[in-house]
Amino acid sequence: MLHVSNLSVARGGMTLLSGVDFALNAGQILVLRGANGLGKTSLLRCIAGLQNPVEGQITAPETVAYSGHADGLKGQMTVLENLAFWSSIYHGPSAEVALDAYDLHALADRPAANLSAGQKRRLGLARMQVSGCALWVMDEPTVSLDADNVALFRAALDRHVQSGGAAVITSHIDLAIASARLLDLTRFKARGLMGSTAFEEALE
Amino acid sequence: MIHLFLRDVGLSVRSGGGFGLALIFFLIVVTLIPFALGPDQSALAVVAPGVLWLGALLACLLSLDRIFGLDFEDGTLDLLATSPLPQEAVYIAKAAAHWLTTGLPLALAAPVLGVLLNLDFEIGKILGLSLLLGTPALSLIGAFGASLTLGVKRGGLLLSLLVLPLYVPSLIFGAQAVRLAGQGLAYDGALVLLSAISLGAAAILPFASGAALRINLR
Asked: Taking phi first (over 0 means left), then psi (-120 to 50 degrees means alpha), and beta for anything else, what does residue B152 get?
């Protein structure tokens, strides 16, 4: 489903990762690991088509469901309206499916502006359900989620891959997904890249 | 695309959406002009077409940075870029929503507000018609400018500098049509040119703006 070969990723004119190679089939989950500033987000943005790679090839489905640091919610719209909007943009499953998956029924008529950070994130994740896309590209999906909601996310992810989907995820916490493959991006760190601050550079 | 259009119209009508801002600004300009120019009614009628068009143009300018700015800040534009919707469609939906909530109310209010500047109501209707034909260009060009200045912090100044020169032809032909109508001369030529600017903008700018969006989201 997703094939990445010899990929170089840059941000702000500086190459962060090079020679990245991996493949992902339907039914698989890949968790990307690596330190802050290594280039995880830039790699995901390349896969989602938001950014061009410096070199290398990405073979991915034409549309992927992307979830970044921002949830793209409209505060004046209710939870249900937010989901219904994205469902109609993707021509995906109805918003009800997503409300079920993340236990959002009680919040359905609340304006998104009144949600807590964790609830907003749940709504952002619920958006992936209504996209109907086979490949989910998720950047730190569990930020501000409590343990119960991480479990909801894990269950939703399980159902997604059981039904033939796939997911690429970056995460700093251990998601405890047995079937997930781990890929540490540190070994793809671009050569010649110095420490991220002048202080670290001086130390080297 | 229609869903994005409806969402944008809905958002601007709801609280904090900025609907009515342009209209109120227009009202303020038009009510203050007679105080500034003095009570000479014939002088007012002479400047009325130009002042009304200028007021509408500046009112349009007020809400331009909101067209893409809010969606850029909360990440919606990134998500729209990864959705099946092409960037050109995003632009068209947003420019159309801006026109419906800004240009159309201005065109409808202008004949009534023209009376405040001693503009005959019959001529006021021509003014409304010229705004109806001309404001689509203002929204289209403005949304294009907004897509170019996306991501520039406090880009409002840059946006105004980019967009104002492109507004000049619409302003000239729009005010000209109303002035000709006031003198009892044929004004349809100016209206045709005004419509041509709107149609030309609608034909070309979606592609330019789509490209600008793609570059700026990187």
From this structure: beta
Q: What interface predicted TM-score (ipTM) does this complex get?
A: 0.84
The tally of domains found in chain B comes to 1
Query: What DSSP string runs through B99-153?
Result: IIIIIHHHHHHHHHHHGGGT--HHHHHHHHHHHHHHHHHHHHHHHHHHHHTTT-T
Question: Which range of residues forms the domain containing residue B124?
Answer: 2-216
The minimum CA-CA distance between A186 and chain B, rounded to whole Å, is: 23
Q: Compute the distance between CA of residue B218 and CA of residue B216 in angstroms, rounded to an integer.
A: 5
Q: Indicate the pTM of the whole model.
A: 0.88
DSSP A27: T
Q: Does the pLDDT of residue A120 top 50, yes or no?
A: yes
What is the per-residue pLDDT across B73-111, written as a single tens digit (0 to 9) for each?
A: 888 998 998 888 899 999 999 999 999 999 999 999 999
- Partner A contacted by B97 (CB < 8 A): no
**Contact between B80 and A89 using a beta-carbon 8 Å cutoff:** yes
